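User: I'm writing a tutorial on reading structure tokens. Could you give me a worked example: one chain, its sequence, then its tokens, then a sentence or two explaining what the tokens reveal?
Assistant: Sure. Here is the example chain.
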Amino acid sequence: MTSSDQTTASPDVAGGSILSCENITKSFLGVNALNGATFDVPKNKITALIGPNGAGKTTLVNILSGAMKSDSGTTHLGSVDVTNWESYKIARMGLMRTFQLSRELGGLTVLENLLVAPKVQAGESLFNIFFRPRLQRREEQQNIERATEILATYGLYELRDNRARELSGGQKKLLEISRGVMAAPTVFLLDEPMAGVNPALIDRIGGYILDMKRQGMTVLMVEHNLNVVEKICDFVIVLAEGKTLATGRLSELRANPEVVQAYLGEVISASTTN
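And here are its predicted structure tokens:
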């Protein structure tokens, strides 16, 4: 298969996992951020990636999404080896991500932020602009209708004409998530979606993530709120010192002495009583 063929291929989701990495390593100035991380993400499930600060979680998300290259190891999206592909190629394969700090397009309106999300739009082709304008207009109208529906679902419809930079921190989180949903991803990587938001919004975002699963998406989320992990996640991956320490359900991992020792045992114990 040629490089260009790989870019537009669809991952094979017939097996049990849709995203996997094996022996991923990454170092910065001689310090290992990742030291052999290996795991599979089951398809159409919500998987949490947890671990102490400095475990390498965000570095791993950056590598999986193509924002950063690994030093060694392999990454597969379905049956396709996407190791160290550019981020736009991985996005075309159906993998989207959010960031710890929201990255909205501040100068665009809330609605326009969603309209840029769909992949391979007819209006991106000069041929369509000049020779198939009705196709372009029809697709644009369909995208506007879908974006409007998503904004209504995420409580942002009334703000659709506001500049994205004018939103509050919580609203920017919702905008980034809704923009990812607009792209119709197969796999959605969420980097600390609950960080810095109020408790009421945490519950709402948890509900939205459950809806993603019902819509057929696979979600991998970096998250420190173990109450949220227990409520909505089907599977948990524990990362420590750049390596996969354990996998399973959170209830099982609480009984694992290595996990308790590595991941601030008092945090895991505290979540048991909440």
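What the tokens reveal: The radius of gyration is 19 Å. Residues 1-15 have pLDDT under 50 and may be disordered.
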